Amino acid sequence: MRLQLHDFRLAHEILEHRPGWDELSSQAQSIEPDDVLETHRSFALAGRRTPAGAQTAINQLFRDKLVPLAWEPEPRLFSANEEGLRKWKMDFIKDRIGVEVSFNHAEAIPWTFTRLNIAGESREVEPSHRIDVGVAFFATTSLKSWGRMDSAVGTYDIACAWLEKMRPIMPIPILVVGLEAEGWIQTEEFRGTRVGRATSSPRGESPSPLS
After folding, report:
1. Cα(186)–Cα(126) distance, rounded to whole angstroms?
2. Is residue 170 left, alpha or beta, with left meaning phi > 0 and alpha meaning psi from -120 to 50?
3. What CATH fold (topology level) applies to the domain 3-183?
4. Cα 41 from chain centroid?
5. Cα end-to-end distance, the chain, whole Å
6. Which helix (DSSP H) or strand (DSSP E) does residue 116 occupy?
7. In which element (H, E) is residue 99 found?
8. Is the overall model pTM greater than 0.85, yes or no?
9. 7 pairs with which residues across the strands?
10. Which pLDDT does position 193 carry in this prediction?
11. pLDDT value of position 194
12. How many DSSP H helices and E strands does the chain contain?
């Protein structure tokens, strides 16, 4: 999988000196269409309801690739005892790099960046889960189309635009990464959603408001 990069507040320069970034980028680039399709099919074989789009399989691939490399999944920002705040989590953390893999509704994009910003700036965050640079993965339009994701899923281009609008309130360095599917052969493996089938927009699984 090819990656597009949008550097915000010199995040890339910081990451170039972190071994964790080499792991993260290489694992993301290693994802091939056959990997996504095989993982997607595995849900049905395990007796699970097959997701409508490719995003669930891609999320699973990130987990399968990163957890064995000691990336901590779903680190809490705040204590589990804090009612109302304990559900605030990033997707992964290692080497003081916070990671979000987001295929959510476009309106939730600011919350993706807000979680990373809080993890880097708030003194209330669990000490072991504080970060000094964030990485946020989003689908490009090519991957969104290939994976028949819901038309409302936010894309890399929208995320980059949002982050620039949020610059005055976002001191944390963040690298926005677009996941590309250019050249991937189209597939009928994903059924898409009813909304997606009713329009000409890319189709896929309906996202939740927050990851």
Report:
1. 43
2. beta
3. Restriction Endonuclease (3.40.91)
4. 21
5. 22
6. helix 109-121
7. strand 97-102
8. yes
9. 175
10. 82
11. 63
12. 8, 6
Per-residue model confidence as pLDDT tens digits over 133-148: 999 999 999 999 999 9
Per residue in 11-41, pLDDT (tens digit) is 999 999 999 999 999 999 999 999 999 999 9
DSSP conformation letters of 64-77: HHHGGGTPEES-BS
The answer for residues whose C-beta is within 8 angstroms of residue 97's C-beta and 6 or more apart is 15, 18, 20, 21, 24, 131, 133, 134, 135
Kindly state the DSSP code that residue 125 receives in the 8-state scheme. S
Residue 195 pLDDT more than 80? no
Q: From the centroid of its chain, how far is CA 189?
A: 22
d(CA 27, CA 58): 12
Do residues 115 and 100 lie in contact, with contact meaning Cβ atoms separated by under 8 Å?
A: yes
* Residue in this structure with the two tokens 């896929």, named with its chain if needed: 204
Task: Say how far apart CA 40 and CA 134 lie, in whole Å.
Answer: 28
Q: Would you give the DSSP letter of residue 57?
A: H
Q: Dihedral (C-alpha) 105, 106, 107, 111: value to the nearest 10 degrees? A: 90
Q: Residue 202 has what pLDDT?
A: 32
List, as one string, the DSSP characters of 12-29.
Answer: HHHHTT-HHHHHHHHHHH
Q: Reduced to 3 states, what is the DSSP secondary structure of residue 204?
A: coil
**Structural domain spans, the chain:** 3-183
The CA–CA distances, whole Å, from 169 to 6, 129, 160, 172, 197 equal: 18, 21, 15, 9, 38
- Tracing tokens 């949002």 back to the chain, one arrives at 162
Residue 63: pLDDT over 80: yes
